[in-house]
Design a protein that fits this description.
CATH architecture of the largest domain: 2-Layer Sandwich
Number of helices: 15
Number of strands: 18
Distance between the termini: 123 Å
Number of domains: 4
CATH topology of the largest domain: Heat Shock Protein 90
Strand content: 15-25%
Structural class: alpha+beta
Strand order of the largest sheet: 5-4-3-6-2-1-7-8
Amino acid sequence: MSKRGWFEVDRKGLAEVAKRRGMAFIVTEPVQNAWDEDITECAIQMTAVPGKPQVELIVTDDSPDGFRDMADSYMMFRQSYKLANPEQRGRFNIGEKLLLAVAVKARITSTTGCVIFSEKGRTTGRTRLPRGSTLQATLKMTREELDEAVKFAHTLIPPPGIKTWVNGHLLTERVPLAEGTYSLDTEVRGEEGGFKYTTRRTILRVYEVLAGETPHMYEMGIPVDEIECPWHVEVAQKIPLSMDRSSVRYGFRTSLEQFAAEIMSDQMTEEQTKGGWVSNALAYMDDEDAVRRIVKKRFGDAVIYDPSSPESNKLAIDAGYTLVHGGELSKAAWNNIKGAEALKPAGQLFDDGRVEGDIDGVPQVEKSEWTPTMRRVADYAGAFAEHVLGHGMRVIFYDDPRLGFEAFCGHRVIALNAALVSFQQQDLDALLIHECAHDKVSDHLTHAYHRECCRIGALIRTFTEIV
């Protein structure tokens, strides 16, 4: 009886799995592996094979240790030494195998030896390099896939201090627009092997999106997936990913965009703050200063629509403010906005003329305590109302500056606060026109109220009483 391993891998089937992620990503797998080593230079060369749907790929680096164990190049799911370090990209030990699955032939040469992959199978060679590693492979790729792979490789963000070339072009070392340190989920070695999720503080870097690029989430320089925000956002540790590195959890994406909004809150344009991703981020943001900056840029001078104070809403619009309605944002976003006091209801900023202050418990001034001036004003106000309204109005007095109003009118009563009201003739007439108009119209900001004030103002020309 022959002894066989538990598993066998169908190379063609693995090639199909590899292509799900895309040839562009597969071709750059050796680059990210090189970046995890102690290198200063890495080069990737991709050249079309004349007359065939194939590409010659060469990736080189100058690692002093080279390929630590050549078995890693062909043994799938061997536990990676990078697993324990969340700041290294490797985890499944599958990257080279995906590349080899779509290769016609390949050779990996390093300080520890040489492995050759051909139609004869896997063999070892005697060649060794004094420094670094070189991967040479002929891949099954169309010209379209080659163009896509070269374009993708140019979007890599090399780690500082590592010169990276793509087809002879030195990738620019990009300078972040901003960065910050936040707590994000990552993957580390579990206590009994395998993976476990943990939350860890890490650096997030935000980069400008160059011409021809789309905003991406990056894992230590490698584009992982498109994102809605208008920048590239790089995470300086492992991102929890599926095996083909193509699936990011929704919660992680939400946290990433939340932090990006906080980092860039002082650099966002007005247009950028109106993005749907910002509306979502506002629901989770912890930085109240950032919330206030974003809301200010998004809405400008604004107040929350106040259903309890229609006149305040109108006054806000008249003053050039934007009314923000409840349906424009989620409940969670509103909780954050109100908690940061980024917006206030219209009624808190614009006085609608209603009585402010609680008059319950505040006594009226008894008639026996009225001053001679108060008596003359009461007689004048009563006669004024009779003349312009056609019916009398009872006049009462308060005398307390804490009540915060000069006068109010209702139920055929005019209340005057002697502590605040001016008894000068012109001031008193203006106040009485205002209050008597409320006998018919409550809303200050309507044509009906305006017409009533004009009607009363015209009638006082025939009113001869004086204070």
